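Rotation project, supervised by the postdoc (A.L.). Task for the rotation student: set up a whole-complex structure prediction and record inputs and outputs verbatim in this book. Inputs entered:
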Amino acid sequence: MELRKYIGRRLVQVVIIFFVILTVLFLLFRLAPGDPVSRMVDPDMTPEDAHRLKVELGLDKPLGIQYLVYLKNFFTGHFGYSFHYGEPVVNIIWSRLPNTVLLFTTSIILSALVGVFLGKIASWHKGKKTDSILTIGALVTHTLFLPWLALIMIWLFSYKFGWFPITGMISEDVWLDPDSGFIAKSLDVMYHMVLPLSTLFLIHFGAYLLIMRSSMLETLKEDYILTARAKGLEEKVIRDHHAAPNAALPVVTSVGLSLAFSINGGALTETVFTWPGIGRELVFSVSQNDYPLAQASFLLIAAVVLVSNVVVDVLYAYLDPRIRY
Amino acid sequence: MTVRERFPLLNSFLDGWSIFKQSLLGRIGLVLLILFALMAVCSYIPPLIDPMYNPMTGVDPAITCCTPPGMRHWLGTDFMGRDILSQLLAGARVAFMVGISAAVMSIVLGVAIGMTAGYMGRFIDTLLMRLADMIMVMPTLLVVLILAAVFGQLNIWTIVLIIALFRWPGVSRIIRGQTLSLKQRPFIEAAKVAGASHSRIIFQHIMPNVLPLAFLFMTFRVTSAIITEAALAFLGFGDPGTVSWGMMLQWVWKTGHMFKAPYWLLPPGICISLITLSFYMLGRAMDEVLDPRLRKEDQTD
Amino acid sequence: MPLLEVDNISIGYHTRNGYLKAVEGVSFVLEEGQSLGLVGESGCGKTTIGMALMGLLPPNGSVSTGRILLEGKNILVMSDEEKRRIRWRKMAMIFQAAMNALNPVQRVGNQIAEAILVHNPSLEKEAALSQVEGLFDLVGIPRERLTDYPHQYSGGMKQRAVIAMALACHPKVIIADEPTTALDVIVQDQILEEVRALQREFNIGIIFISHDISIVADMCHEIGVMYAGQLVEFGPWRTVFESPAHPYTKALLSSFPTLTGKKSDLVPIPGETPNLINPPAGCRFCDRCPEAQAFCKTTPSQWVDIGSGHKALCCRS
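Outputs recorded:
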């Protein structure tokens, strides 16, 4: 019951934040210097089409009405037409969403799990060689400049060794072949995902490792660890069953706090590897002055970050009974 | 009375320094940062030797394409015949400029907002912290991107300002927590009873106690500002008038030289990564100085 | 053969500032079903002794000399594995519950059952949990609170759960370290009463560690007063209480409102405890001692037998 109330409260907060972002974006696009119409209507459209779209978006009406039209359009999924693709923006971003979610969630889950695991190992061997290697390795990989790492990965593993495709998410020969089934297609995507995923993983796992390590060292000083030791439990049991679940809590918090940072990295990775996700679409649309697409991509990314935040909160509540009950 | 006893601030600094010195990571970080600072200072030299060493406009008349390192150009040249080493040195200057100014601004903002929220409490606290929550979940890089979409090309100081405006919430939360706990302490109560004004309490009693923490956060903010600017430049939305390391990478990438010219691809990336690493190590060492919990091992009974 | 014999143990910690001699030359004997109290200010080494008995000294601490005989066997020479096996089965500990002694993310019942299971690997989990139900009855916690988490318990209930946990494997010795600090007086009395009843029922030897001499006097047959790492007075509680021999005990008694004695003015002890990295050569209390004389500062103090098991570490007694 308490948990449901907690999640409910978080959801309300998220909806409010999203609404504020929606409004700020509206004001930004209408009030920034320059002609707002040119930001909404493709300059290459025929005058008739352009006029129809203007009426549709309420651009001939006062600002208040425009805002209501904007909200109505948002809730009915009407984001205008992409200048570059000439298609409804909503179609484009919906087709990109799964790709981003796939890469983003896989990388976060993978790096958090590995980070927690290695952080635990580092804390067991505190002050020894294993600890130093893991800690320094984590520091170094975590501070690498992501786009550069991505370029190095491509240079090394695609260009020099030729092990992985240079860019993209699918190979046309696999996907256009009517004979290839679901498994062949999935394997193809996974094959393309190896490099972008490794890039994101290398950048992120170090942070989780360092947090888990220091959190574990803090937790091992707690009194309930002394209790566990006094009970005659084996060290391994104490660490895995008593210390680790408590020590992992700050890691979950930090996953939540670093979601914004992770999505930045996601967008950079998608761009360098030309992974067809929303992040890359945002970068691309901004460079092409494709305003409707940029606006919609940004909103969708904000939504992804906010929803992931709630997911992390629920996970935290699930792991920590002090919030659940 | 010794000098140390006469200046308590100097004394606590020296105490901190003696702990800092014990940290290997902190020492490495400091040495690296000094090297980078030297690079930034040296960036003024090459253009004086010959205009062709100007990082932005200097083109070696004898060279029209990308060339590997040699006597004339120690790290080689880019596709237009510009000297990579002078670009790299100029990049160090930009990194410090961006990093430190954005960090100072965001820390000042964060400390001011955090202290206000913590000290005033009630409605103002709730309002400011909700605002902080909201900004905290925004991916800074993508926010700058969308602003670039609306406002067109951003110059370097606008970028710095935007980074600062979006990076204060983390600091302000910590400072708020610190202020809240300070507010409960007897010496604040005593000051209030003695009739000290709000501004006096804030500046005389609370500020000196939260500043070390703010200083620690500054090292982390410096790195995030450097990374954000570099990423922005890498994506092609940087200030076209400055040569930053991110900009150099953008040139390698966009001109398709990343496979052909590793001598051009490697240095800027290594520099961004290393400067981030050294600020990070410095931050961790300072954390040890400030965090009394780490010294808990010595406690007995 | 006594149940537990502590023979001349010294314990030290390696710290940044040097080797800290936390306990020096402490000896005492605990018989079955008896209780013994260790009193002293914080930092006097009483908790260190408790931890050494359980074999739970932090990595920078170790017993440098002496023997700890549990049923005649020296536990200091046992291997880690042997020590792990006797922990909780022979000797358990009641921690201060206010100090987070229960794991916040595990159900209380499971934490107690875990102690039973680790020493009876053949037992089913259900059987262990039903034993825990019995323990809950014993200490007066409703059975349905078995599946609760620690934060759902009140302070007193947490303390009861910690006591139930200590009883889980029917130990011979229980070390109770400040078991009622941070509880309000009424709950404190209830819990002490329960501990006393359980001790009688199961014939357990208890070592009671506290800074509060009135509680110790209330609970224990014998009292050891500790100061700066040394035992300074030892004897049956009544004699120590009624005719304290060591000036420190006298000061301690006058700085607490007593339950049994008449209400006297509280007199705080002036001065500070000596540095245990470089302890003074003479009597450690002499700087704060109202009865100190010139030779106290230079001559190491000697045990003086006052009779009927009562002795004090003071040249003037």
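Student's summary: Chain C touches chain B through 16 residues (CB under 8 Å).
Supervisor addendum: The two ends of chain C are 31 Å apart (CA to CA).
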